[in-house]
DNA sequence: AAATTTAACAACCGCTTACGA
DNA sequence: ATCGTAAGCGGTTGTTAAATT
């Protein structure tokens, strides 16, 4: 019954790690690397279960860990990401090099307490996000916007700035987790950030969308970096639907060009009745026009709706639901235009 | 002394593999 | 061989004891 199968040691030590134990673990891992945690305790001479060793290494002993207080940038990133993905700490941590999920979780939990206390007294009309306790990871959109506004006001940033103005991250969202909610529940959406990185590292090819117009292309290239977003929405009943391979395999350092994204989606089964080419052309023209008038790089949000059983029998039909193009400021950090 | 923060475990989850009917 | 399922494992998140301030 209450038997720990992971611990086949005679006496399994628990609780805080002693410096001696730390040293043993460090010595073992640094010389042998880590592969199978369950055999670490034995080989390293530790009276611990493998899981405990793993946690100790991951959260505390590994050399590339970042300590000390969170920078304001990190804090903003955490807040924004939490707004997007909720309590998925590991996911959030993956965007903060050297920080552990545990640390971020702890930070959030102590931070949110503080903010709740503060906001109840000093900012009565700007509430913290309302969390659905049946689905704790899901957060109401309007709350996010409130939170967003709250920080924008709080930190006195100009309207030109975004929460990400310092690092210019690039986001790609996947809102396919929608299927976790009911079909009618439109106000709880939890997009997943698929990847993000500094737009500084973007190649000019990323914005090479105007194949037909080299003049425009040149303009685009010379404009400064800024945050960008691409979002996908796939709506429930998509049990057979898989994310396009391009996204899943992705491809840490390259942004998926929009045309590829589209064809990617369309190449999946059932996309047959889309006039993709015409849409593409239409977008291209919109884009050219927009760039010309705005004189800056656009950001994009695409969302896709999956409509079932309409025409193709049981076949799933993917329909481009909406696409929105705007200034970085109007789109980032959170794709509220998906509302 | 109380409140906050940290570091650990418990519980759970999804994936893979081993096993067995 | 094949399917179902149990076991094992790495990984993630909720919770809380202990340390710290």
TrEMBL record:
Any one GO CC term of the record: nucleus
GO terms under biological process: regulation of DNA-templated transcription
Domain HTH myb-type residue range list: 9-61, 62-116
Family matches, as SMART domains: SANT
Disordered: region residues: 319-339
Stretches assigned to the Myb-like domain: 9-61, 62-112
Residues passing through the membrane, by range: none
GO molecular function annotations of the record: transcription cis-regulatory region binding
Full protein name: Myb transcription factor
UniProt-listed Gene3D superfamilies: Homeodomain-like
Keywords assigned: DNA-binding, Nucleus, Repeat, Transcription, Transcription regulation
Domain of life: Eukaryota
Primary location recorded for the protein, binned into one broad class: nucleus
Organism listed in the record: Medicago truncatula (Barrel medic)
Subcellular location: Nucleus
Biased segments, Low complexity type: 328-339
Record Pfam families: Myb_DNA-binding
